[in-house]
Design brief:
The chain is an alpha+beta fold. It has one domain. It has 3 helices and 7 strands; from the N terminus they run αβββββαββα.
């Protein structure tokens, strides 16, 4: 993985289930990871290995969904060979409803 977040950066993400009462559209996305046509938008983190967020895999917006994402899986993913997941180091936290790629997905928010 490129640009692995530090513990300090990860500690700024709300804990898992902390934003459970918020509408999906209002959840803040604190980190963005990407690889080719795949995007992972992170809203919560358990402090160990589990994120909660929105994933668009291979650009398939019809199959995109909210769910749990293992940090270790992102760190070890290398598809196609020679490529790795990267973290958007310029990302600023925004509501899910402000992210065009999420809004393009049916039933996302």
């Amino acid at each position: 993985m490129w640009n692995i977040p530090t513990e300090k950066q990860l500690s700024k993400i709300p804990k898992l289930y902390e934003t459970e009462g918020k509408k999906l559209a209002d959840k803040k996305i604190h980190m963005h990871f990407f690889l080719a046509d795949s995007d992972w938008y992170i809203a919560e983190y358990d402090g160990e290995d589990t994120f909660y967020g929105f994933a668009i895999l291979n650009g398939w917006t019809d199959a995109a969904e909210w769910g749990y994402i293992n940090f270790s899986d992102l760190k070890n993913l290398k598809i196609p060979p020679g490529f790795e997941v990267d973290r958007d180091i310029h990302w600023k936290p925004v509501k899910a409803s402000e992210i065009e790629k999420i809004c393009e997905c049916p039933n996302s928010i």
